[in-house]
Amino acid sequence: MTHGDYYRGNVRCVDGRIVALFDWDDACYWTLENELAWSLWELTQADDAATLDVDRARRFLDVYAAAGGPVSFGSLDFIVPFIRDDLRTEIREAAAMAEAGLAVDHAYVNRARSAFAALADVSLEWGSDSGFIVPSQ
Prior knowledge:
Blueprint: E1 11-14, E2 17-21, H1 32-44, H2 54-66, H3 79-99, H4 106-118, E3 125-127, E4 131-133
Antiparallel strand pairs: 1-2, 3-4
């Protein structure tokens, strides 16, 4: 089982350590790779653009690896496609909700569409001597 909805509002930290996770509504059976990819996306988005913040992503993955996170890395090629797949799912779900006459957060959906497009050119790589490298876009 995975949490499925890591983002800043669902994680409480004290003294740099996670002490609580909230909002378990999206908990499900999901691969750890997918959970890592979506967590990376939610916690390292750029504040002013619908893409990854390169420095945050680098720090996140470095800390994750140093802490012995359960996903092992031979390649990070899976991360961005998993993020894009999850964004695609959210966009489709919003379209279905709108078609059913339910309320949709259009700003969120527009940001997801922009992110989906922006992430098409982003890749993550493992650097042999300096940890993770997130190439500039």
